[in-house]
Amino acid sequence: MEAEQIEIATFLAQYAPFDAMPEEVVAEVATSIEISYYRAGTDIFAYGDEIHDLAILRSGAVELFRRNGTLYNRISEGDIFGQMGLLMNNRVRMPAKAIEDTLIYFIPEAMFNRLFDDFEHFADFVEVEDRTRLRQAVSSHNEANDLTTSKVKKLIIRDPVMISSTDSVQHAAQVMSQETVSSILVMGDEPDPDTGFKPVLGIITDRDLRNRVLAEGLPYETPVQEIMSPQLITLDHNAYIFEAMLTILRSNLHHVPVLQHGKPIGVVALSDIARYESQNSLFLVASIFRQQSVDDLVILSQQVKDCFVRMVNEDANSHMIGSALSVIGRSFKQRLLELAEEELGEPPVPYCFLAMGSMARDEQLIVTDQDNAIILDDSYEHSEHNAYFEALSKRVSDGLNACGYTYCTGNIMATNPEWRKTLKEWEQCFADWIDNPSPRSLLDSNIFFDLDGVHGRTNWAEQLKAFIGRRARRNNRFLAAMARNALNRTPPLGFFKDFVMEQDGRHNNSINLKRRGTAPLADLIRVHSLAIDSRSQNSFERLDDIIESGILPKGRGPDLRDAMEFISMVRIRHQALDIEAGREPDNNIEPENLSDFERRNLKDAFQILSNAQKFLKFRYQPNRS
Amino acid sequence: MLHFDLRKKEDADHVDWRAMLETKRETVQHETLQAFYQQGWVSPDTSVSQVSFVALDFETTGLDSQQDAIVSIGLVPFTLNRIRCQHAQHWIVNPNRPLAESSIVIHGITHSDIVNAPDFSHVIEPLLSALAGSVVVVHYRRIEREFLDRAFKQRLGEGIIFPMVDTMELEARKHRSGKRSFMDWIARRPPESIRLADSRHRYHLPFYQSHHALTDAMATAELLQAQIAHDFSPDTPISELWR
C-alpha cells in the first residue's frame, strides 16, 4: 500500500524545519497531518483555548495577536504557529485569525512531541523561532523606551483612578464607569508623614461591587471603606515585571497598585503582565515555587545555566540578564525559606530575610556566592528564639549552596549570628559604620550597603535603606572612607602596551573581570549614589540618578554606563561560552582569547574606570567640605 | 479524473434516500452488502457539523464504466473541522485489462504497478468498512457511483448505491444555475469551470498535482470544507448536500 501524502510531504520539505529532516520522517509527518480550511475573517485560535496541534500555514494568510489585541505578526505560506501554546501548557497564547481564505496543516501533539524529542534542530527551531520574533517585538518596543522595558512602571498606561475613603460605593461605581476602569484606589485623607502623600487604604474592583455590594444588598450610600479590600500589597515602580507577576499570582490578586516614592502612579493588572512575560526565566521562576523539597530545587537549579546561556544568545543586555538571574536567585531563597518554615514551624517572631550585594543590585550573574542576613523583630529574645533562626539560616544557606550559590567566603551569611540583628540593632550598626567610618571598618561591611528584603517583613529592608540614605548623605567622612575603599581595586591599566595579568598564581595569564572591572565600577557608582541619597540599587539606575543630579562632569555618566555594559557583557559572554563548552564558568578571561575589537574596547572601558576613580578621589577628599 | 464532459441530468430528480436505503437493507442478498446496509445511516436532517465524511476518489482505465475499470482508490476521512490524513487509505487494484497509454499518462499508474496488485474483490471489505457510518464525498459523483456499482455487480452479483455529496455538483448549483446572461454570450465569456482544480482555485485552495486518487480525495475534502464555509453553514442539514 502506498500511503504517503505526496502533496503534503513535498510542501513540508520546502520549509524549515522540515527541509533538514530525513525524507522518510517528513513522509511520516505528512501522514499524521490534519487539515482545516478557514474562510477569510474567521478565528483559528482564541486566547486561552486548548491547543493540541502545531499549525503550518499551507495557503492564505494569518495574523497573530498579542493578548491585548495588538498585531504581533502576519505570517505566510510555510510558517508555523501555535508552538508557544504547545510548549507551555496547551493553552493558546497568541490568538490567530485568517485574513485570507486559508488552509492549515496541523501536526498533532504526539508527533510534535516526537519531533521535538528526536530532532534537536526542530526543538531549536520551534523554540527559537518564537523567541526571535518576541525579541524583535520587544526590541522594536525598546527603541522608544530604552533598555528598561522590563520594569513594571512601563506597564502603566494611565494615571490611577482614586477616590476618598468616605465616598459612597455608588460614587465609586460612577467614577469607575466614567473612567472605564475595573478598579479604583481608595485613598486616606491625611497625608502620610513619611512620604507627604495620602496613603492608599485599599482597592475596589468590579467584582467587589458585585459580591460585596449588590449581592449583599448594601445601600448605595455605603462608604467605600466598608467594602474595599484593605490593600497592603503594592509594587514599587522599580519592581521588575517578573516580580509583579509573582506578586499577582502568589497573592491571588488581579490588580496591584504601583507606588513611586509612596505615591500611587498606576495599577497593574494580570492581563498587563501576560504580554510582557519573558518565557524562559519566568518559566523557571514559576517552577521554583512549585518544588516541594530542597532536592527538587537542586535538580531544577541545573536549568539556571541554560536559562542564562539562552538569554545571552538572545542578545539580552547585562541589565536584563542581571535582573533575571537576581529574580531567579531571590526565588530560590524565598522557596527555601518557605520550605524551612514548613519544616520548622511558624517563626517565633517576625523577620525579614535580606539579600545583599549583587543580588540586591539586580546584577547577579552565574558565578556568584550567597550574601545574606536577617532583620529580626524588636521583640526577639536571644535565649528563646536563637535556635529557630539558626536552624532556619542553616537550611537556607545549605540549600543555596546545593543549588549552586556557594557559601560566602567572607561569612556574610545569616548563619553567622553577627548578621542576625533586630531592626534597632541594624540601625545602630549602620549608624556606627556611617558616623565613625574607617576604611578598615567599612572594608568588610561595604557589601551591606546594597541590601534588599526577599522574604518576610520586606518593608523593614526599605526602612533600613531609608535610614542609611538619610544618615549617609552629605556625611563627608563616611563618603571619603567609602571612596577610599572604592579605589582599592584598580583596573588592569599598566597596559599601554598590554593588559596586566592577575598574579594570584591560578590564573596567571588572565584578568578577573569582576574584581578589576565590574566590582570597582559598582563600588564607585555606589559612593556617588550614597552622596545624592539615591534609593536605586541597580548600578545602571544609580547612574541615571547620578547623571540627573549633575555631580559628574558632562559626558562622564554615559561613559561609565558604556564601560559597565561592555565589561559586563564580555564577562557574561565569557561565562556563557564556558558553560556551552562544558567548563566551569568563572570571571577570568585570557586576553589572547579576545578579539581585537574586544581588546580595544576593554582598554577604553578600563580607562574610563580609571579616570572615574581619579575623579572619585578628588570629589570625596576627607578635608573637602 | 477523466470525466468532464460527461455530466448528465441524473441529478434532476431527488432520491428519497431514507426509503431507498431502507429498501436496500431489506432486499440485498449478499451478506457483505447486507452488513454494509445494516450499519445504519446518518439521518437526513443531521447538521453537517455532526457528520463524519469520507472523501473518495477513483482512478480508472477510461471513462466508460461498462468497459473500463478501477485502477486505484484513495479515501480520506474528515469532519467539517479536520481532514485526517492519518486514516487515509490508498489501494491500487488490477483492472484485469490492458492500460491505455493515454490513461497511464494521466494517473501515472503503469503496467508493472498493476501486475502484482490485487483484484478489486480483495479491497471490498476494507473499503466498505472505511465507508461505513460516513457520508461519502466525491468530485463528480457519476464516475465513483457507476464504477463502484459495476465493480460490485461483477464480484458479488449485486450492485451498490448510497447517497453521495458531490463537490462538483455544489459548484454547478452555484455557477451553472439559470441561463448564461446575454452579456456573457456577447462577451463570449466561458462558463465558470467546475473542474476540481478550478473550483479549488476559487476558494483560494492551493494547487495540488491531480490524478492521484489519494491527493484528489484530500483535495475534494478540502473543497467541501471551503464550500460549506462560504456557501452553507455548519447547521445545514446533510440532506441539502447529498444526492
TrEMBL record, chain A:
The keyword Calcium does not apply. Residues 17-116 form the Cyclic nucleotide-binding domain. Keywords: CBS domain. Residues 156-220, 228-284 form the CBS domain. SUPFAM superfamilies: cAMP-binding domain-like, CBS-domain pair. It comes from the Bacteria. It holds the Pfam family cNMP_binding. GO terms for molecular function: [protein-PII] uridylyltransferase activity. This is Cyclic nucleotide-binding protein. It comes from Salinivibrio kushneri.
Automatic annotation (TrEMBL), chain B:
Residues 52-233 form the Exonuclease domain. The keyword Plastid does not apply. It catalyses: DNA(n) + a 2'-deoxyribonucleoside 5'-triphosphate = DNA(n+1) + diphosphate. GO terms for molecular function: 3'-5' exonuclease activity; DNA binding; DNA-directed DNA polymerase activity. Its EC number is 2.7.7.7. One of its GO terms (cellular component) is cytosol. NCBIfam families: dnaq, PRK09146.1. This is DNA-directed DNA polymerase. It comes from Salinivibrio kushneri. The lineage of its organism: Bacteria, Pseudomonadati, Pseudomonadota, Gammaproteobacteria, Vibrionales.
